[in-house]
Protein 1
Amino acid sequence: MSFPYRLIATDLDGTLLRADESISERTREALAAATAAGAAHIVVTGRAVPWTRHILDDLGYRGLAVCGQGAQVYHAGEHRLLTSLTLDRQLAGLALAKIEAELGPVFLAASRDGLDGDVLVGPGYRVQEGPLPYVFLEDTAELWAAPLTKLYVQHPGLDDDTLAEKAREVVGALVDVVVAGPNIVEILPLGLSKATGLSLAARRLGVKKTETIAFGDMPNDIPMFGWASHGVAMANAHRDLKAVADEVTTSNEEDGIAVVLERLLGAA
């Protein structure tokens, strides 16, 4: 049995993972069948390595993963960072000051660089319930004490899309601003995206973008869809991603990845 793509790129939250952070047996089997047929599976996630590693280990995943919105290329089998790009803290501070001057105070969190980098959460920032660890800071000045991969911002009165759009208008020449999930608006190094990280990883694997199928659910997956040959949005995806997708599958709770992989395996 053959498979029409050499690389399967999957987002995690809202895509490969169900709401309880599990991966269904059907999806595991479909990925195993596709990899047995010659494709490589690569996880491409906004999560930094410390929030991704336990999922990869549970999958028995030994290959490369793109983490931190493209900032980190991680070798899961060797538990080693191959590349890591950090956010210029001086530039990020300037961008933040401009955002607050225009929109008023925002709530902050940040992801520290490295294999064991903490996620730091400042006062007022709403953290999603779940098992992922974070460190609460009384004083947000401590956010800037060590290298960061990204900042997270929340606004007391603006929804995610509006906050990201208005912030982009103010600081789009300094940093990138993306919506990565519910209540997750991120400030990233300018030009960084899942596409830049995926292209680095694909080059290491000797795979071309024309040989890649990608799955995702949020606007931060748009660059990855633009890079890959075929982009598949989940039924639960953000409208902006659906607008640029080549197809829409069922939701992450309904084995949307497996539905497409099984079809492609059956047609091979």
Protein 2
Amino acid sequence: MKAVRLYFRFFEMQLKSMMQHKASFFFTMLGQFLVSFNVFLGVYFMMTRFHEVSGFTYPEVLLCFSITLMAYTLAETFFRSFDTFNLMIGNGEFDRILLRPGSCVFLVLCSKIELTRIGRLLQAVVMLAYGVAKSGILWTPMRVLTLVLMIGGGTLVFAAVYIIFASICFFTLEGLEFMNVFTDGAREYGKYPVAIYGKTVLTICTFLVPFSLFQYYPFLYLTGKTARDWYALLPLPACLFLIPAACLWRFGLSHYQSTGS
């Protein structure tokens, strides 16, 4: 409980800091909404032309996209500090964190909460509401639980990718651009069910980075395109991706040497 109170204290401090420049905060939030709206327009125009993709209708595609976008946005909002961890190492901020009492992971987590991403989250909520209403899915308690698990599992998978990115920075001291394939790239190709990109991509997203476990397979259960009801629970094992991410973090931390900043 002490950690929770401390986290909300950090949250309150950062919110007050952002509200010192209200116009900047709200315009940045609006910009995030408009950027994601452009992506939505791309989906809209394509589905207007082709009507369905691999058997998935427009409302179903929007539902799938909204789940991925919401999970990505929640991860970026609350785990943004790991995505910018190379800057924290470069300016010496992480060295100061190591001198403070408490878990360094927790202190890094609290150091940056990206509340301007609320604009993108709003876009995801609107698409989710439309998809839920128009997809024709019969919403049972199990399907509602599956939807919640997909969003929660996706958030933790993206968070694990951010932690892996930060862990690599212990050795490189700089961010590696190719990691954006698994964050921004995943958000982009997550607009559609992963299987449409081919068997190779589906295999990678199942066994290497488990995007399919929270996005594609449970979505088949939601839309009634599979008889395998256990697909509904696959977001739970997807959360286990945090284990190798945590191990890599501990390994990197044990080999970390200050940059001298």
Protein 3
Amino acid sequence: MIAVDVGGTETKAALVAGTASDVRAVRQRRRATTRDADAVVDDVAALVDELRAGADDVEAVGLVVPGVVDEEDGVGVYSANLGWQDYPFVKQVEARTGLRTAFGHDVRAGGLAELRIGNAKGLRDAVIMPIGTGIAAALVLDGRVYRGDGSVGEIGHVDVGHGDPCGCGQTGCVEARASSAAIARRYTERSGNPVTGAADVARLVRAGENDAVVVWREAVDALARGILLVAALLGPEAVVLGGGLALAGPLLVDPLRDRLDGLITFQRRPELRLAALGDEAGCLGAALLAIDMLEER
């Protein structure tokens, strides 16, 4: 399979081999994500051509994208960060590549990979939450990734009461304070010191820089309140944190655990885990979707 994970900032692609229970990337490519659905398809087609060169028996493409998706019809319904609406991704990619294409949501695909081969393996009820340019969650219910009508898991757009505007048009969203992009933006606005990403802010937090500490604390609070809502509604065994922000490790998990302990009263207290697959999760999940599609034919 050739797997493509279109992220809010970067598009990752890989030639992937394996089975429905064990996949591995053989070759990988990355490029910046373009802010237009037609241009995204151009990039996907170019990546497929590059990765299939010299490869034997490429059987399918697995493509995952952010936002609201219609997996059955292969349509990207809406993306707040990338700006498309009702775009027929599967039709366009199949026409360009000549390969059957499995289609899904980037976060749910990453959740599927964590469930089958990562740190959610063995869990029956869990929330897998990558934190990157945006925030969404894969919901594992009774051992399966729940996709509903394609619009579930948008925890990043839950109002947790802080009042800041979000790109989706609402205010108070978890994503507006706790996404990697928001942390970098808010630190730059507060301090006047431009940074390139949340990793820069994390380094400043470790050094005790005051503005960074405040921004980080507010991000942790927003994230904890979002997890509290999930705990109240779903009672998961664990919340598995992934994406770029999870690379901060204890700098994120320790204060998040403390804040969650301060908020929880009667709700089931979910274990906090770090994802195992890093930023490969979306690609590996896209490949698993392709394998599942082929096995169903």
Protein 4
Amino acid sequence: MTSSSTDGWTERTLVRDGVRLSCRDWGGSGPDTLLLHGLAGHCGEWDALAPLLRDAGHRVVALDQRGHGASDRHPEDVSRAAYVADVLALVAELGLVRPLLVGQSLGGHTALLTAAARPALPRGLVLVEAGPGGAEPGTAERIGDWLRAWPVPFPSREAAVAYLGDGKPVVGEGWADGLEAGDGGLRPRFDPDVMERSLAENSRRAFWAEWTAVDCPALAVLGQDGIIDGGEYAEMVRLRPGLHGLSLPGTGHDAHLERPGALVAAILDFERRTDL
């Protein structure tokens, strides 16, 4: 593993199966916590939340999942199993001890599958706008088409924030932070085709068996205007009656960007109530 320091965090890089993986290690003392971003996202989405969690007494690491951010952009294997294997490799490489797994959207799905594959690994699981229900057929293709339709290069950060935020500047800022300067302006640090392939497995099946295999306390955080509907949440509770859940008022799918302080408060309260 290689590392380099910047303001507030250290970038660490490891290679698993020929794929370079990058993460931001925020340091801190106390229980280990691993943060996982969503599809087409990047680990910098946690930059507002990570120091709050660190200062509350956690050691915090945020991973750029394969195909995203500073990690390899074109990995051949983008299966759900590959994403999980990356998490396990990072946990081993950094010596994380029973980390709290916190993931948003596809990152939450990665966290869920990691907890299912290694029930003894995490001390807890926090799913932000994520669940085990399968996506509707064609979802991966529709999202791929949406990503390919972005008017890139964006001529300025302001233009990117306005387009990607869709009326929510704080969300636009979070997405714009994932762009890089290139010919003519700002471009994504991902390939839409890779993103589409990364989501394909979710469009083919649901993951309820994996949800029942999770053996640690779990918290589901829903946006008030998010993508996890009442039916999916009700089934999650039915299969795991001990599930903790809450909805963050005034948020949508990007609740971690819209109200990072409220999300940290929810995580800390969850830890207190479950003695994590």
